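Q&A log
Question type: sequence-to-structure
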Amino acid sequence: MVFHLGCRLPLLRPENTDVGNTSSTTIRYGLPDRSHVTITLFNTLGQEVALLQNGEQEAGYHEVQCDGSRLSSGVYFYHLRASDFVETKRLLFVR
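Response status: OK
Response body:
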């Protein structure tokens, strides 16, 4: 999954690049400026199941591993917030 945040980096819609490994994925994103980044994983009931990233990060490209091996198979949502950018996307973990 790839996010490019801000006007200096074009916004690309995320896509799952981890073909063959459906119990984990990598979320990649770019920051045009230093930002506080929060990436949270929720189940379909809206309960937080993992905090993947929470802190200040420098401008540039970053990635975070989302390991679903300890989660039940199913649909999850990850919520990415950086400065004034907010995006929620769906993930599917299959065992």
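Response note: The chain has one domain: 2-93.
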